């Protein structure tokens, strides 16, 4: 397994739209290896999610997992989830605001409004169609990662940039 290089904001890949993956390609050794590398990279950098364009591949693939995470110690567990060609097919009316960070925008956090609940359809690691009903932090990560697949980052979704903070100041002043 390899740890992949993470693209940061300013690299054009972060603003590119990702292509969908051909379902027949999913079981291929190359695709499986790439997804394992994405998972390994997410773990290495203590991320709770990672989208393929963040590692310089403009394909509609995202991985999500929340274990005990030093960057988000208060967050609930989310099992390892691989989303290929994901689409949000419905969402709650209710919107929640919470802090987000991003491995492509290192050392920063900001308050982002997101739908409280989403229903997402995708292919999984084996190329099976799955439907995920997510709420709270899991729903938030899904929305964050799907944004990456259309070239958006969390800062684009912030309605008030005043909360944007460096992590060190976040730790001192945010509550
Ligand atoms: Zn991100």
Tell me about this structure.
The chain is an alpha+beta fold and 175 residues long. The protein has a single domain (12-173), classed as Peptide Deformylase, CATH 3.90.45. It is built from four helices and eight strands; from the N terminus they run H-E-E-E-E-E-E-E-H-H-E-H. The protein has helices at residues 29-44, 136-149, 154-157, 167-173, and strands at residues 49-51, 61-66, 78-91, 95-102, 105-115, 117-123, 129-135, 165-166. A five-stranded antiparallel β-sheet has the order 1-2-3-6-7, sandwiched between helices. The protein has a three-stranded antiparallel β-sheet with strand order 4-5-8. A hairpin with a 5-residue loop joins strand 6 and strand 7 (129-135). The longest helix has 16 residues, at 29-44. The mean pLDDT is 95. Bound molecules: zinc ion. Residues 102-104, 144, 148 line the site of zinc ion.
The gist of it:
The protein is an alpha+beta fold. It contains four helices and eight strands. Helices cover 23% and strands 33% of the residues.
Features of the shown structure:
33% strand, Peptide Deformylase, binds zinc ion, five-stranded antiparallel β-sheet, 8 strands, 175 residues, alpha+beta
Q: What is the mean predicted local confidence, pLDDT?
A: 95
Oligomer: single chain
**Number of discrete domains:** 1
Tell me the strand order in the biggest sheet: 1-2-3-6-7
CATH architecture: Alpha-Beta Complex
Q: Any idea what the CATH superfamily is called?
A: Peptide deformylase
Overall 3D form: globular
CATH C-level class is: Alpha Beta
Radius of gyration, in angstroms, nearest whole number:
15 Å
How large is the count of helical segments? 4
What is the count of β-strands? 8
The class by helix and strand makeup works out as alpha+beta
Fraction of residues in β-strands: 25-35%
CATH fold node name:
Peptide Deformylase
Largest sheet: 5 strands, antiparallel
Q: Which small-molecule species are bound to the chains here?
A: zinc ion
């Amino acid at each position: 397994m390899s740890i992949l290089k993470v693209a940061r904001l300013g690299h054009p890949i972060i603003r590119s739209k990702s292509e969908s993956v051909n379902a027949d390609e999913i079981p291929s050794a190359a695709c499986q290896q790439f997804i394992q590398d994405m998972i390994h990279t997410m773990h290495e950098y203590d991320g709770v999610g990672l989208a393929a364009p963040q590692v310089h591949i403009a394909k509609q693939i995202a991985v999500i997992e929340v274990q005990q995470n030093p960057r988000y110690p208060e967050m609930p567990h989310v099992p390892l989830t691989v989303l290929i060609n994901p689409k949000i097919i419905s969402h709650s009316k209710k919107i929640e605001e919470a802090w987000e960070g991003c491995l492509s925008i290192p050392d920063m956090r900001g308050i982002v409004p997101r739908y409280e609940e989403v229903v997402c359809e995708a292919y999984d690691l084996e190329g099976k169609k799955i439907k995920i009903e997510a709420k709270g932090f899991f729903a938030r990560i899904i929305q964050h990662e799907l944004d990456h697949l259309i070239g958006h980052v969390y800062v684009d979704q912030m309605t008030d940039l005043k909360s944007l903070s460096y992590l060190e100041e976040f730790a001192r002043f945010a509550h």
